[in-house]
Structures
1.
Amino acid sequence: MSKPRIVHLLDDTTTGGVTRVVTHICNSQRLANQAHHEIRVIPKNTADVPVIEADLIVSHLTISWRGLAGLIALRAKHPNISLIHVEHSYTQSFTALNVAKRERFFSLLRTAYSLFDTVVGVSRAQYSWLVTRDLVAAERSCVIRSAVDLSAFAALEAPTGPCRVFGAIGRLEPQKGFDTLIMAFSQCQEPDARLRIFGRGGQHEELERMAQIDPRITLEGHAPDPVRAMSEVQAVLLPSRWEAYGLVAQEALAARRRTLVAPVDGLCDQLEDGAHRVARNTVADWTRAIDASLTADLSKIPDSQARLSERVAGVFERNWEGLIARSLVKELPVAA
Amino acid sequence: MYRATIVVPAFNVAATLGATLTSLQAQTYQDFEVIIVDDGSTDNTKQVAEQFLDDRRFWYIQQANRGLSGARNRGIAESSGEFIGFCDADDLWHPDKLRRHIRHLDRNPNVGVSYAGSQMIDAEGRLLSVKQSPRLRGVTAAHILKRNPIGNGSSAVIRRAVFDDIAYVHHEAYSAFSYFDETFRQSEDIECWLRIALLTDWDFEGIRGLLTYYRVAGDGLSAKTERQLDSWENVIAKHRSLHPAFFARHEPAARAYQLRYLARRAISNGDGKTARAYLKRAWSQSYEPLWAEPIKSGVTILAAPVASLFKVSAPAQKALVKANVPTLRQSSQSPFQPILKGDHYE
């Protein structure tokens, strides 16, 4: 008997992080033993969803009103298989900062989620929000923390000496909060400290202008090799305004870098893996956290961080394996 | 376990605490506990509180002075209720207040902060003509920044989940978690509401009625207005990085409202010169208060020169009162005593 076929749907605007997580699923040997995984890219918000030959479809699409017709079509055209949706985008802080009409937005999410058999949250914090706001029923949802292959990061030398080189890695967009970071870092007194910002995006010019006040801050541009960028810093800072999970934090933790996160959404999940919490996502609190890191002992690495790479990979595969096994057996309604 | 917890921060309030606690005991909804946090009082606040401790729902906690935020944080830390209300120890609650807020929160799962209007009372507990009748629905972060519809510290009943969402560990904090920012001794309310509005997706919504009796202080506060403005500016500066675009858009108008409020406070003190200076600064920030609230702004402008003469004619005073300018009408004190305490917006 041939293996079940699982199709992962992405749309053509899907961000790099999501693509990497899906690729990680497709490359997993353990998951390949269970089923055949493949990626299918469809146009964003298309209503004309094709009929897909598959035993299970996993949506990694971004939900929107314009895309809702497509999701309804997806459900209608695949009545006899399970559909899973992985919510990579929306969180409580996203809603707080971006959504004016919340009731309307929640209606969209409830409607869209109701089309799927299972909705997957990518962090415990996000999952808790999905369930407590009644966006999806607890029995139809679960949490699988996102993961990518961390082995290359784990293979990096652990940083030594006093903590002086701080890194910020990600798209240069307001979401990532690097503007806050530049203001906070410029108030830190240590002359040998450096802040290196890797990435590209719409905020580039604004950040460059802000960074001019302090020669210790440099914009490094896009890092095609994230492992190399990681190797060049001793600590990684994540001041995101919203963040469903925060893969960069996982990479930094696996590379045994000192990792500081804002207490926002999925970044809170990173604390149990060894990240340090910045009290609040304000300039003053970031300055304080950076100052505290200057005197931190980098040789002290929490156990939770040391073997993160293996642990994360195992948990991620096991969770997906379980979800797929459950979803392949779809209970059909009994005819009356 | 009680359904609701009412936190009563108490600092040297022996004169008024009894009435406050009596008003809570008389609530029509009875499934609640009261946590009295004595914030280092030096009068006999403790003796007054002890008279209520026969009621098993009343708890008394003493701590070294940490300020209003510190007292509230302690109260939240000790609370067991699913909903948390606050009642300052000189204010009173309408007997049906708690029941109505709990009904409101039960029926509206997206609402995290439920509030209502307030009726001002004087030192002797007599009703004044001044009311706070805030916007009740469709409240956004911009409304909170500009007009603070919650109004005062004894008005809101808040879901515990909201506090869980904004809890943080303060580097100098006394308790494990902070909710209100203890580094602020003024503007602590607006600081917390703004943080809820910008960091969480809980809705703010008001219910009809004047459900808090808010006691207004009779002491002169004019010297504090500039300091009050400073603390308000600190709140803004602290939060600006959370959402720069939001502040770029709404901050000037918010500052104009704040300055207009200070002008009105100055008028209450009979200081027309200061009032006019504040108004000038207000319009340099934004004209929004003029077109959004023309009557209130117009009356303030007209009242400023009148106040500087320090003698308001009877019709002018009537106009002021009618337009809700804070002046004491029924008190035996001078009509120009400030009647709003603390740093709340009218």
2.
Amino acid sequence: MTKSNNYVVEVEDMTVAYNVKPVLWDIDLKVPKGVLMAIVGPNGAGKSTMLKAMLDLIKPISGSVLFNGQSYYKQRKRIGFVPQRGSVDWDFPTTVLDVVLMGRYGHVGWIKRTTAKDKSYAMDALKKVSMEDFAKRQISQLSGGQQQRVFIARALVQDADIYFMDEPFQGVDAKTERAVIEILKELRTLGKTVLVVHHDLQTVKEYFDYVTLLNTQLIASGPVEEVFTEENLRKAYRSTGKILKG
Amino acid sequence: MKKLAVLLISLVLVISFVGCTEKKEDNGKIKVVATTTMLADMVRVIGGDHVEVDGLMGPGIDPHLYKASAGDVSAMQDADIVVFNGLHLEGKMGEIFENLEGNDKSVVVITKGIEEKDLITDESSEGHDPHIWFDVLQWKKSSINLYNELIEFAPEHKDDFKKNYDNYMDELDELDSYVKAQVEKVNEDSRILITAHDAFAYFGKAYGFEVRGLQGISTSSEAGTSDVKSLADYIVEHKIKAIFIESSVPAKNIEALKEAVLAQGFNVEIGGELYSDSLGTKGTDAETYLGTVRANIDTIVNALK
Amino acid sequence: MNLIELFINDYTLRIVALGSALLGMVSGVVGSFAVLKKQGLLGDAVSHAALPGIAIMFILLQTKSTEMFMLGALIAGLLATGLIVAIEKNTHIKTDSAMALVLSVFFGFGLVLLTYIQKIPNANQAGLDKFIFGQASTLLRKDIYTIMIIGAVLLFVIVLFWKEFKLVTFDSDYADSLGISSKKVSLLISSMIVISIIIGLQTVGVILMSAMLVAPGVAARQWTDKLSVMVVLAGIFGAISGVVGTVISSSIQKMPTGPSIVIIISLIVIGSIIFSPNRGLLLRAIRERNYRKNINEDNVLINLYELAMNHKDPFHSHQIGAIKPIKTAGGKNTKYLENVLLKLQEKGFVKRDYFDEWAMTQEGIVYVEKHPMRKEMQYDSTN
């Protein structure tokens, strides 16, 4: 296989299975640089799993992932991750600023402490998500949308090239959703690549330029205009009715 | 078909026979189960060749805390005679004994029949102190219970039992004199015995020693820090030369006591190990009652004189 | 007797109190992370698992050495932890069940071994069954040194890896994505939990040890929202319970030390849960009652305001019956309404004209018009 320099992420032959039934089967995915890509599919399609497998959080049975032609470990510093909001206990005793600072831990390294400079990067990231006033707030006091923005700020502070986000719009108010998509579009303008596991089919066309349709297998992947068709959606969702409104 | 049936039936019969005979294992001896090593020793002496003794507890085992296993219980149920100390020495076996007595088993409670005036009360539990074997003459008196039971169970061997018993009585008298003689070697002021738990009260009463223990009459109670302190104060006040570890109780308690005494600037030695709630190790001189009592008094006197 | 005098005069009390305090502090600090990771039961499982470890060590080595027992307990504890993780990973059994399973099986096995050990000569000198409930009053100076050294090492590790511990405890997936192995850090934390349990076994025993691990952290959480403060506070609570428990057990006859300590820390936890300012149940109930009262008052005031505004003269008084009753429980009767109006009068918002006639005051009108609820009503009244 030739290593293509146009693709920031290349997934080859990836299969993930816990028991007998596979969650992901033989996935081949190429993500070009600078796209804002939605990953959609029905529940249980393996979207989160694929994300986690790409980030080496889950071990696949087979397959490989390359980032800019290299292994995950080598490119780790260039990758930012926004996990699902529900994966964390928000009653943890810590402030908003502290959480965003965590994004700097990769740069700071083991044992060493964060510096004033790290703090200022964190505050900058908070400004970008309009949360700078909340810096000293306890995370338990945040609304869903605010929590999501904190997570995004944390990823932003890593100053990564590739961002993975797992359902960032889930359970979030309209204002936050608009704010977040603005940030993502800005990231794309800056040449970053963003992959988002997305649950709302109706907003795919509006928000994203690339889309990957997944249902254990890869149904289709590419520019939204080409790939996001009724036919493909029906294949992905195994339904016969009309899926998209209007 | 018929052959098969015959084969099966004979197989069953053979097995049941073997099973039956295996169970009997009869060598004609009286099966006696005794709880403590002291009692097992007594049974061997008086019973002689006519008894087969199974001692439940080994040397260094603490009878206050001993929990009988299922094997122990069935051994007691199969036995001809069961011998135990009583007065709650075997603190965790009370129910088992009640069951045995209820089922008409031949049971010897060695402390039965001791007069109230000879018993020491236990203030904490309002019962009696069970450590009667430390008074040799009292042990001598109590052995009559076993002797009577043996004669009743196997009257055919009465002569042998009587011979053994009389012999034992003499030996115990001699032992008592020996102890008293040894005690004389220690100054009257120094006749203070400090041990891990209040086991030696009868010893103190019989032979003129002031006796103090760190834990109470039963080792199941924890020694509190105030107990350690008051005993340490007592040791310093009376300038006691030595304190003693017991074979069946963790040494740590006495070590803690020693540290407390040292902190007050007084140096007390650990005078040695006493066999308190059991006899000495098998294969040594101390494995019999006579040997143990001798070893104990020697240790005490050597350390305190 | 003066407490200071008590400590000066009683060497044993000093030693035991010091040992218990150190132990309480270390287990409180380390246990905070177990609490935050919701792994309190793990501490329980490991403590109970220590019993067969100690027993097997005795059977194998026929030794009475405390250090060897600690080693056996450590191995058993780590084994139990590993087993729990393996069960979670490879079967459908959930964490809780896996921990309970390992806990009971190991402990039961330990008890069986103890019954067997009873038969081994001189086994009682080892004092093995003292590990079930602890034997705090026989702590020796060398035990204190051991606890001090191990405690210092554990605390040092926590300070060193503070941000890694914080991150992995909060969001392990994210930690992995940064290259901070959540598995390794979790293992480190678990090992530290096991070690603090081991050194604590001598004092409070196998059964009660999990309380010393979990209770201080739970109590501390009620008082603060900062992780660093919580951990320090947990250490302080643990230490206090160690000292106070020891003093109490030494003053009362036949009061064992280990359980006394646990009783104290339990009281601290219960007190914290009820009385702490932010999360405490009592103050929360009081605050909620106050909110409700204020809302009731505001509602009545607004009702009166509406009546006033619909009248030519805003300061005209109205019959109490005309003022809509409050819809909360017990608010439907006039007496309650009157009490509320009296309160409002105290605040200067209403005035009583006659016996049961009430009117708005200028202050009252101003207050209502500035009230945040007013905006809602403005939407309503646009008709």
